Amino acid sequence: MRTPGAKQVRGRALGAGALGAALLATACSADQPPPAPRTTSRAAPSTAPAPSSAAASAATSRAPDGTAPLTGLPATPALLAGPVLAVKVDNVPAALPQAGLDAADLVIEEPVEGGLTRLMAVFHSRTTGRVGPVRSARVSDAGLVQALGGGGLAFSGASGASLRWLRREPRVTLVMPSGWTWRRDSRRSAPHNLYLHEQAEYGRYAARLPGPARRQFSFGPAAAGGTPTSSAQVRFQAASAGWTWGGRDWQRSQQGRADKLETGRRISAANVVVLQVRTTTDKRFHDKNGASTPIMDLTSGGPGWLLRDGRSYRGSWQRGPDGRFTLLAADRTEIPLKPGSTWIELLPAPAAPTLR
């Protein structure tokens, strides 16, 4: 990740003309079927950097060929060649319930101004329709998408300084509201009412996005040891997330209440990863009220925790030479995730999760 102040190459912002109002009603219906596997054909971009031979060998040894890089589940060659589309999703009480998070391979909860949080829903192996409410981006988002191998970052807007910064990341394509794939929901109050049709948006731009997606962490059988854990609390300055083991997956709560999507489905994940990150501020980056934007250090590493299969594992996280995140045990071996979806909680230091 490049931090503010580094010299960068200017990126690209995408836009497209409207395809007609007649498509709106069918494209953005709130009644969504269960997430389906991604079937869009994806050509391997010629701009993808080749990892070092050591990094490539290590990545191959950690996961079987033919598995999706962000879930560890079986995947087609076309899927393996494709980039990600990351969507910024609102996470304040007025934005609930949200839409589309159950189709994301990864959901990243990150701190924003005032101690609140915002989500980055990362789509790769599955497709969905309505996602949102979509909100604005922050400067750290470019580093997160770059870590994933590059791809699209979909968001509603950003401050002038933040937008100039985001445009400098060479492997991040900015996807902003344009055309029929974006829609305001008249049943919701602005600014918590902008939604994106993820499947259609990906189809418009898949061939033009950087990629392919880069594997994060490793997947496999549970590591030896771990501590039996039934619940975890992750407390930000002005927000909190709770996770309870449900026998098959981890079920999410927010501010002490069950966290459900607009379909009524409880938000859940096979894995919950908590990464303690150091944050700084820069006077150039703030919200409209003047509150400073937390800028996350996504390169230096720090304490990390994994929740899977009703157990918790404490270790440390780091970024490898190829840019991927890893979670390491005390003996420096990787702690494997369970194949499936993952939530990543980026928790500002020195806070730590409360495990029971």
Describe the structure.
By secondary structure, the protein is mainly beta. It has one domain (66-283, 293-356): YerB-like (YerB-like fold, 3-Layer(bba) Sandwich). The protein contains six helices and 25 strands. It has helices at 24-27, 53-62, 77-80, 141-147, 160-166, 198-205; strands at 12-14, 36-37, 84-89, 106-111, 117-123, 126-127, 130-131, 151-154, 172-175, 182-184, 194-197, 227-228, 231-235, 240-245, 250-254, 257-258, 268-269, 271-277, 279-280, 295-296, 302-308, 311-319, 325-328, 342-348, 354-355. Strands 1, 3, 4, 5, 8, 9, 12, 18, 21, 22, 23 and 24 form a twelve-stranded mixed β-sheet that branches. Helix 5 links the parallel strand 8 and strand 9 (172-175). The radius of gyration is 19 Å and the shape is globular. The relative contact order is 0.19. The model is unreliable at 5-32 and 40-63 (pLDDT under 50).
Number of strands: 25
The CATH homologous superfamily is named YerB-like
Query: What fraction of the residues are assigned to beta strands by DSSP?
Result: 25-35%
The outline comes out as: globular
Proper CATH architecture: 3-Layer(bba) Sandwich
Q: Find the structural class using helix and strand composition.
A: mainly beta
What is the CATH topology classification name?
YerB-like fold
Low-confidence stretches: 5-32, 40-63
Give a quick account of the main beta sheet: strands, pairing sense, barrel closure: 12 strands, mixed
Measured on Cα atoms, how large is the radius of gyration?
19 Å
Work out the helix count: 6
Q: In the CATH hierarchy, what is the class?
A: Alpha Beta
Indicate the mean pLDDT: 85
